[in-house]
Amino acid sequence: MELQAEGSLLRYGIIGVGMMGREHQYNLAAIPGALVVAVADPDPGSRQQAVAVASALQLSRPAPPLEVMEAAQSRPEVLVQVGLEYRYIPAVAKLIEQVKIGSIGHVRMVSIREHRFPFLVKVNNWNRFNRNSGGTLVEKCCHFFDLMTLIVDSRPVRVMASGAQDINHLDEIYDGEVPDILDNAYVVVDYENGARGMLDLCMFAEGSRNEQEICVVGDKGKGEAFVPESIVRIGARDSGRAGVLTYEVHDKRVKYEGLHHGSSFLEHLEFAAAIKSHGEHPPTVGLEAGLMSVAVGVAAQLSIELGRFVALSEVLDRKRS
Ligand SMILES: NC(=O)c1ccc[n+]([C@@H]2O[C@H](COP(=O)([O-])OP(=O)(O)OC[C@H]3O[C@@H](n4cnc5c(N)ncnc54)[C@H](O)[C@@H]3O)[C@@H](O)[C@H]2O)c1
């Protein structure tokens, strides 16, 4: 790989090189001037696979394990971007753009349906237990709560959820324990500005054309995004069904699709631009957005456990104490 002139080369370290870490290796290999120089991972199998990926990509050989970075908040000069890349899925980005330019008016409702396959097998099966991941509504659904909050443009105030583990992983046993993670749920989120969001999650729905269907309704119209069909539909109340516009969305900047429709590649482009701007353009997805997306997930898990609405303040105050 030809290196960029001194000063414009961005050097990356990846902490954890399982499935997602390797996706980032491929993403960065497709970005000029980006170079993975180190990985850290306690699992020898993951390290070996990262070296194999690096060799295949003709990148420099990673040198595991290196020191873990100091916590971002104690180093204000370090730029941090949270990996909420569903914002960058081309069809989702198009829908968000339409909402932000006012095509559907003042947003009142956002519903997100994720109907997909069960959780994949992970290194040492960490994702089979709530105690490791925080639970399904935290670990994987933080993306959807982030999208809701971004689209609604307000603060979540309370959450009510119903969910269970009905089908998946019940026949698996790890060190004598059966997994305890949810495989389906409905979650309702109330926002400060009166808007509401809803997540419909099902992880035994392989027979679906789309994995995500996002629907936003405002006082003027309605917008929908379908992934992976990569279709967006926008309609206005005053032009009815006949006036609904359909867009097929593609982003030519994507050089590596990965498992997330090119979104984790696009988030890297944005992060690299933020680094190169030397503070002029801070990363779009900061720590506050990350915190809120996870806090809604925690509140949803708690709501199922307690059988009642959970206020975000209960979760955030608990986190801070
Ligand atoms: N943003 C997304 O769309 C997305 C998608 C999948 C996973 N994830 C998240 O990415 C993370 C990793 O998931 P994955 O699918 O790559 O899992 P994985 O099991 O494939 O890989 C995780 C890797 O992290 C390593 N690891 C564990 N503890 C470590 C430590 N203290 N220091 C360094 N490495 C450590 C493990 O050995 C393993 O190799 C999880 O937090 C998961 O929720 C995000």
SSE layout and pairings?
Blueprint: E1 10-15, H1 19-29, E2 34-40, H2 44-56, H3 90-100, E3 107-115, H4 130-133, H5 136-139, H6 142-152, E4 156-164, E5 184-191, E6 196-202, E7 212-218, E8 221-227, E9 231-236, E10 245-248, H7 263-276, H8 287-306, E11 310-311, H9 312-320
Parallel strand pairs: 1-2, 3-6
Antiparallel strand pairs: 3-7, 4-5, 4-11, 5-6, 7-8, 8-9, 9-10
Helix pairs in contact: 1-2, 6-8, 8-9
The chain binds nicotinamide-adenine-dinucleotide.
List keywords for this structure.
alpha+beta; Dihydrodipicolinate Reductase, domain 2; 2 domains; globular; binds nicotinamide-adenine-dinucleotide; Rossmann fold; single chain
Describe this structure in words.
By secondary structure, the chain is an alpha+beta fold. The chain has two domains: 60 residues, NAD(P)-binding Rossmann-like Domain (Rossmann fold); 236 residues, Dihydrodipicolinate Reductase, domain 2, CATH 3.30.360.10. Strand 1, helix 1 and strand 2 form a beta-alpha-beta unit. The longest helix has 20 residues. The protein starts with 9 loop residues before the first strand and ends with a helix. The N terminus is likely disordered. The structure holds nicotinamide-adenine-dinucleotide (NAD). The site of nicotinamide-adenine-dinucleotide has 19 residues, from helix 1.
